[in-house]
Automatic annotation (TrEMBL):
PANTHER family: NITROGENASE IRON-MOLYBDENUM COFACTOR BIOSYNTHESIS PROTEIN NIFE
Transmembrane annotation, as ranges: none
NCBIfam families found in the cross-reference section: nifE
Domain Nitrogenase/oxidoreductase component: from-to ranges: 42-437
Protein name: Nitrogenase iron-molybdenum cofactor biosynthesis protein NifE
Purpose of the protein: This protein may play a role in the biosynthesis of the prosthetic group of nitrogenase (FeMo cofactor).
UniProt source species: Candidatus Moduliflexus flocculans
Length: 460
């Protein structure tokens, strides 16, 4: 029996808060350490998760079929109409294409797909191999766009050039090429764009309804249940409301610089942050005090309706320990608050793409003993899950098997889920799922819970 080790190169990206700790100086925004099997996704995947929910656009992956398979139906993003986004097309590059180039193949495939599906736009994603062989995807896109009369947009998401964050930037640049090409006629001065909301399980519909109840016009949602024509006229909105700051702040800054549209960062997870998201938007329109009045009434009514059910869950969850590992650190803030509201303690919190300001804020929020980690790997997550003897892990599809193999309850808070966890109804769903996972009697049979088991030790 021996303790799980931490790679020397990773030690400065892990911090445990407590008395006598070294000054907080967590390193982040670095390339993943070779051999650490990072939980991060690649550049291409980062671009796909942002653009995928645009439902009336064609999405073509230029590369081997594995890349398209990896990101097929990657988000639980629902559509109120077309579902073209749920089809994952690949140019299926072979060894011959890689040797002689795949531009001709790409040209013919995109033409055929446009003729077959009649999309309102097409996104063409470059993968790792395209960065190696040098296909001019941009030139092919310009040619097809001129011939077909719809936007055909290259997404420069070659995997070798960076991290998932670089994929977010590539997606923002692709979206920005659409913005400004549509009419702003009929847009109210009290209007917003919702950025970074991907309609997982229908969450964009919930949030959009809240803002409309306040009296605001939602011009576009980028990109949940997204439509090309709505994105094209997004420059007419008065305010950008950014939910997933890691993926969409770049686009918000571009729109501010070019069109003068201010933006604010919000979160729709948990009672406190959901309410703040409504209040902060209302504050942006001081000439319309009725917006704040409606927001307060909405918050009061929604919280009153769900408080009794949440109180019942809180009684069983009090004192239980949770580990949080998500893509963006801004989501982690909300999860810390939501779990504390349910009476739980935070043993570990980390993200794939957090920046120094994010981690400083997490350090201030967390209690002594909490482990804060950037760009974790499976061994690190396993180590601290065992040492802290956690009862629940919150993450995504790659963290689920870690939790189950260790005999720990799990809550999927990533983009693969089908259940809405945003908004007030989402808080109820979240509490219900956490409660069911943590109190499931099967965990009592876990080897780590058996007599004589030493938390934090495994056979090596």
């Amino acid at each position: 029996m021996s303790a799980i080790p931490i790679l020397k190169e990773r030690q400065k990206q892990i911090y445990e808060k407590g008395e006598g700790s070294v000054p907080f100086d967590l390193q982040c925004e670095k390339q993943s350490v070779a051999g650490s099997v990072s939980q991060r996704a690649c550049v291409f995947c980062g671009s796909r998760v942002v653009l995928y929910p645009v439902a009336d656009a064609l999405h073509v992956v230029h590369g081997p079929p594995g890349c398209a398979v990896y990101t097929w139906d990657i988000r639980g993003s629902l559509s109120s109409g077309p579902e073209l986004h749920r089809l994952s097309f690949s140019t299926d590059l072979t060894e011959t294409d890689i040797i002689y180039g795949g531009e001709k193949k790409l040209y013919h495939i995109v033409n055929d797909l446009i003729d077959t599906y009649h999309p309102n736009a097409a996104f063409i994603y470059s993968t790792c191999i395209i960065g190696v062989i040098g296909d001019d995807v941009g030139a092919v896109c310009k040619r097809v766009e001129a011939e077909k009369g719809i936007p055909v947009i290259p997404v420069h998401s070659e995997g070798f050039k960076g991290t998932k964050k670089d994929g977010y930037r590539a997606a923002c640049e692709a979206l920005f090429s659409l913005i400004g090409s549509g009419s702003t006629e009929g847009i109210s001065p009290r209007s917003i764009n919702i950025l970074g909301e991907f309609n997982i399980g229908g969450e964009a519909w919930i949030i959009k309804k809240y803002y409309e109840r306040m009296g605001l016009q939602v011009v576009s949602v980028m990109t949940g249940d997204g439509r090309v024509d709505e994105i094209r006229r997004a420059h007419g909105a008065a305010l950008n409301v950014v939910q997933c700051s890691g993926s969409m702040t770049t686009l918000a800054k571009m729109m501010k610089e070019t069109y003068g549209i201010p933006f604010i960062r919000v979160s729709y997870f948990g009672l406190e942050d959901m309410s703040s998201a409504l209040y902060d938007v209302a504050k942006h329109f001081p000439d319309a005090p009725e917006l704040m009045e409606r927001a307060r009434a909405l918050v009061r009514d929604e919280i009153q309706a769900i408080t009794p059910e949440l109180k019942a869950y809180r009684e069983d969850l009090r004192g239980k320990k949770a580990a949080i590992y998500v893509g963006g650190a801004f989501k982690a803030f909300s999860l810390v608050k939501a779990l504390r509201y349910l009476g739980m303690e935070i043993a570990l919190v980390g993200s794939q793409t957090g920046n120094p300001d994010d981690y400083r804020q997490l350090e201030e929020m967390c209690d002594a003993g909490t482990v804060i980690v950037d760009d974790a790997n499976p061994l690190e997550l396993s180590k601290y899950a065992l040492e802290k003897d956690i009862d629940l892990m919150i993450g995504g599809v790659k963290e689920r098997p870690i939790a189950y193999k260790l005999g720990i309850g799990f809550c999927d808070h990533n983009h693969e889920r089908k259940l809405p966890l945003a908004g007030y109804v989402g808080m109820v769903n979240f509490a219900k799922e956490v409660h069911a996972s943590v109190t499931c009697p099967i965990w009592k049979l876990s080897p780590r819970r058996s007599k004589g088991r030493v938390p934090g030790m495994i056979r090596m």
